[in-house]
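Notes from hallway chat w/ T.B., transcribed later so I don't forget. T.B. wanted the structure written out for a chain they're using in a teaching module, and asked if we could keep both sequence and C-alpha cells in one place. Agreed to drop them here.
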Amino acid sequence: MAKRLSPIVDDLDLQIMRRMGLAPFLVWPHSPSSIRPAQVARSLHVSTDTVKRRLAAMAAAGVFHGTQVFPNPRLLGLRTASFHFRMGDAARKRVPRAHVSRVGGVLGVFDMVGGDRCVDVAFGDDAARETLRDELSSLLGASSSHFVDYATPEPVGELSPLDWRILAALRAKPDTSLGAAAAACGASLRTVKRRFDRMARDGALEVIGLFDPGAISGQLVVDLLFHLVPGAGKRELATVLNAFRSRWVAQWSPPDHQLGHLALVVVATSPREVEDLRREGESLAPVERCDALILEGVDENWSWIDARIAQRTGQPRKALAPSPAWPIPLRPRKP
C-alpha cells in the first residue's frame, strides 16, 4: 500500500510525478505518449481512472497544473546546465536571488537550507558556459561545481516556421490540445499531428507534467546526494535507485562527482525524516556518504523561451498568444 505523506499526496502520487517529469529534459528519452494517464497507469499497475483521480486531486491542491510542451534548447542554439555554489548563509544574503537572476543566461536560482545555492543557466557552447560560470563565481564570491547537465538530445534537422507556430500555439496555455493548436495555426489536425509526432520522434520537443512539489502541504523538497565507494558502477547505482524506488521523483548523475555520483529528489515530512532518509542512504553497502540539500527558496523564469520561439514563427509576436512563465515558482516549505 502507498505510504501516505499528507492528506493530499502519497507515494503513488510521487511516482506519477516521476513518470510525467519534473523538469524539461532532465532525463531523455521521455516520449509524450509516456505521460498519458493510460500509459502512466500501465507502468504503475493501477487503473487509468486511479491516475486521473490522483491528478485531479493534485490539481485541486495546487500541486499539478497540467502538461506543457518545451522545445529542445539546442534548436535555439543553446544548452542548459546547473552550477552548485557552497556559500554559507551570510555570504548568500549579500547577493539576493533576484540579483543573480538578472545575469544574462540565468534561468533559475535555487537556495538550499544552510547557504548552498544552485543556478540553472543557458549557454551556446563550452566556452560560453565557462565564461558565465566565471561571472557567477565572481558575483557570488564562491567557486562552483557542475551539478546538472540537462539531457537535451542532438535534434534531427531544423524546424520550419509552421513547426515553430505549432510549438507556440501548444505553449499558449497548459494542456493545449493538438486540435486547438491546429485551429490557432490555420492548419489541419492531420498536419499538426504529423508534425508533432515527427518533432517528438526527432528530439525537438518534450512534454512534461507541470508539478509544484513545494505546494505539497507540510512537505520539504530534498536533493539526496550519494557518494559511492571507489570502483562503484551501474550495478551500485541501481542498488541505490532500487532502495528508494517508491520515493524519488527525479534523478540524475552530477557531472562533478565531488557533489556525488547520484542525486535523487525526494519529498519529506520533516527535518527528522530528511535525516532518516540520509542515514538510510548511508547504510547501503555501495554508499560512502549521503548529503541532503533542502530547498528553501526559488527564482525561476522560462518566459524567454517564448520570445525565442516567436522569432522563428515568421509572424509578429503580437499575433501570438502569450505563454505563462514556467515552471511555476516552487513554494518550498522551510524546515
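Follow-up for T.B.: The longest strand covers residues 287-300. Might be a good example for the class.
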